[in-house]
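To the wet lab folks,

You asked to see what we're planning to order before we commit. Fair enough. Below is the target structure as tokens, and below that is the sequence we designed to fit it. If anything looks off to you, flag it before the synthesis order goes out.
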């Protein structure tokens, strides 16, 4: 009976964690470049139940042996193992601001491959899909948090407060003939990136990264004056939240039933 309590409790905790993930997705439905998190539910290891009893060897002898009989398997509940961002392309939003830049996915050689802008943060190099860039007081191109956007050589991009035109391959063409190429990184499996918050990711030890332009089979476009929106599906998220809530309630009712049964066992059966 106690195992049933633990199973129901683990189900409630898993659905609570799933609800938190979905609520965060919904709150970021209008955040530029946001990638919706997906909670991955996993079951705890399955256990095999056996019953052991003593059995007499013969009717005339008082010797006994232990006999094991298999009852079956039991699962001890579920948990949220991890949350993985969904890197599907978000809708483009035209802003008309020349520093806003959107990455449009094309074809990639790997199923979970994706292209990112290169950033220089306080903790080192990072990656983002949020192209809502601005020019700071010193003329450098930065993101919302003040991290520098990098060129192909890994240097912060200095605009000198000049206007520029962005080509489809990510080349910034300034007046006067100066050209700077945006630093773009192709990640073979975007699921191996570590999420740092504020739409910024860093490469884990397992992640394989390379220059996006030098990666065979990787195609993409850069659009100036637009940003990539969030890829959160609000209708689906609301549906998933209702489903998680109902599953939480079901586990709650199971716990209540077990609690009432335990109460009867202690207060009524115990009196006999």
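Sequence we intend to order:
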């Amino acid at each position: 009976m106690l195992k049933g309590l633990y199973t129901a409790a683990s189900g409630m905790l898993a659905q609570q964690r799933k609800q938190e993930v979905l609520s965060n997705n919904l709150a970021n439905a209008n955040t530029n470049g946001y990638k919706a998190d997906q909670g991955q539910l996993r079951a705890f290891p399955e256990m095999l139940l056996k019953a052991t009893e003593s059995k007499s060897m013969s009717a005339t002898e008082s010797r006994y042996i232990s006999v094991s009989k298999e009852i079956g398997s039991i699962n001890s509940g579920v948990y949220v193992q991890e949350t993985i961002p969904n890197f599907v392309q978000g809708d483009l939003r035209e802003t008309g601001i020349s520093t806003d830049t959107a990455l449009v996915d094309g074809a990639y050689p790997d199923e979970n491959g994706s292209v990112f802008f290169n950033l220089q943060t306080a903790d080192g190099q990072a990656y983002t899909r949020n192209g809502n860039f601005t020019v700071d007081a010193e003329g450098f191109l930065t993101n919302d948090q003040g991290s520098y956007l990098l060129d192909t050589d890994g240097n912060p991009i200095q605009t000198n407060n000049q206007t520029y035109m962005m080509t489809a391959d990510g080349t910034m063409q300034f007046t006067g003939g100066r050209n700077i190429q945006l630093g773009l990184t192709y990640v073979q499996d975007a699921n191996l990136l570590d999420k740092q918050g504020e739409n910024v990711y860093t490469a884990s030890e397992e992640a394989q990264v390379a220059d996006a332009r030098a990666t065979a089979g990787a195609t993409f476009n850069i659009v100036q004056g637009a940003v990539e929106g969030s890829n959160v599906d609000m209708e689906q998220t609301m549906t998933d939240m209702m489903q998680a809530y109902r599953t939480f309630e079901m586990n709650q009712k199971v716990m209540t039933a077990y609690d009432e049964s335990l109460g009867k066992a202690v207060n009524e059966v115990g009196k006999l």
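Structural context that might help your review: The longest strand covers residues 64-74. The mean pLDDT is 87.

Thanks,
Computational group
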